[in-house]
Amino acid sequence: MTGRVVVIGVGNPFRRDDGVGPAVIEALRARAPAGTVLTDSDGEPGRMLGLWHRQDAVIVVEVVHAHPGQPGRLHTLTAERAARCAARSASTHALGLGETFALAAALDRMPRELTVHAVEGEDFDLGRGLSTAVADALPELIRHVAKAIDKAHDRLRCAGALTDERGSA
Amino acid sequence: MSHRGSRVLRLDALARVEGEAALHLAVRDGTVAEARLRIYEPPRFFEAFLVGRGHGEPPDITSRICGICPVAYQTTACQAIERACGVTVDEPLVELRRLLYYGEWIESQSLHIHLLHAPDFLGHPSAVELAREHRAAVERGLRIKQAGNAIMEQLGGRAIHPINVRIGGFYHVPAPAELAPLADRLCRAHDDALETVRWVAGFDFPDAEYHGPLMAMRDPGRYAIDSGTPAVMAAGVGSNGSTPVRALPVEEFERHVVERQVPHSTALVSELDGHHYLTGSLARYAVSGRWLHPSALDAAREAGLGDPATGAVCRNPFRSIIVRAVEVAHAVAEALRIIDAYEPPSRSYVAVPPRPATGCAATEAPRGLLYHRYAMDADGTLTLARIVPPTAQNQSAIEDDLRRQVQSRLDRPGEPPGDEELTALCERAVRNHDPCISCSAHFLDLTVERG
């Protein structure tokens, strides 16, 4: 089975900057190449684990809380790094993204590749709308993710071609 | 460290609860002086948000309150608006709504059992360690959960915040062929659910008892989820072969359940006739256990919960994990029953024309009784919205349970407990009640490393 590129915007639009993940997904709907699965998620681990197959390339878009912080700064994290960032109770389920990845690893359900594209947030209060710092960073974050999607498709095509060669050898 | 001195424990973040909560515990001279749960509760924000909106909007707007139980909010909102407008929804649509609700129950209760609660009983700090040692059990839990997800996606239009629900029914009703694949999944989930009951029944359970009143929906003949009337089992009533309960017409709910502000929490704290009370699995089991699906009844008996058919009551919050597992078995069996009997309704919704009126409703969210009341004017513009979620209702009971459990530990002879032990005890006590503190943010906590 050929892998897909799965892009997951994790967040809650009713908690200000936590809405950045879904905002990126919305922006990409009109410009993502065919074969890209775009979805938003509340980050609940059981559902997250159901969004990808082992052959997929997964890109997660998320907001981070950094120490020391610089709201609006962009980060690209590997799954391993994100797993190390597992914060206690910083999620809907106290099973944050990092713990979700660790759970996927424990259950042998990690995808072929997984990266997290994140922006440092500033305001997580109740309400809609991003802080100025995050809103200013949003176009660049969208560009980063769009480029990551293209590269992931290229890698999957290469992997598929290699598999075909081996199959016909 | 002497347990005679004064100390304060602050847990700014409680692990493995749904959302954001913090705990403040003060012990003075060996006595628990304070146990305060701080909850960040958003429904009040939504109450203000709803005023001025159209009467058709509460199902979509309130579903956003909680990613875990959107169907509970949607169903309760629909029922309250429909009552205000004097509309009765066709029974086939009611059954379809119930199926969607069961999907949420299966998903939500399975998540709590396997990923949040079970680690406490098996000595693991988190679901990750649990998965490494009990992989088959966690995989089984995720399988059950995915069966619930499948119902949500099929009937709700998507996995989170369903978009197919409207006042009066649905935007689209499925063809029988669309529900058939769900039945295949649910057959497997039923076996898995019964296995889960057996699994959790084997855990070690500390002695504990919640003595206060229990409140749940009651609809004789049915394990009430989306029907019936709020009913209260008095404090201290246990397994005595009968279940004396006091009905509380939903229209009188706010006369008995009074919400008040407390300085330490953004959640309103509810009291029932001046006392703390508990809603949720233990309350439902006490009030309606005898009407569980036969397979769930058998599972409950085998799991050592007594015989619900003769009015068995479980008041041990630690054993709530067994009750939840039994409820999952019930929900799966009932979902299968609905799918087996399904015939497409003649219409996907009933018109709900507005009128100047007030309507209220209550249903059983996985975590307990959820109450909504709306008032609207002649064109359907909402002039009032009142939402009383289960966790706000349970907050005082959870705090009381915390005080009792910590005091019980402090009074035990021998080595006094250290802060770490008390912290773990408090977290377990809170997790027993499965509080759902919805609408939380989920940012990663990142330490910037400088090279």
Automatic annotation (TrEMBL), chain A:
SUPFAM superfamilies: HybD-like (SSF53163). The keyword Transmembrane helix does not apply. GO terms for biological process: proteolysis. GO terms for molecular function: peptidase activity. InterPro entries: Pept_HybD-like_dom_sf, Peptidase_A31. CDD domains: H2MP. Keywords: Aspartyl protease, Hydrolase, Protease. Gene3D superfamilies: HybD-like. It comes from the Bacteria. Signal peptide: none annotated. Belongs to the peptidase A31 family. This is Hydrogenase maturation protease.
From TrEMBL, chain B:
It holds the Pfam family NiFeSe_Hases. SUPFAM superfamilies: HydB/Nqo4-like. It comes from the Bacteria. Gene3D superfamilies: Cytochrome-c3 Hydrogenase, chain B. PANTHER family: COENZYME F420 HYDROGENASE, SUBUNIT ALPHA, CYTOSOLIC NIFE-HYDROGENASE, ALPHA SUBUNIT. This is Ni/Fe hydrogenase subunit alpha. It comes from Streptomyces rhizosphaericus.
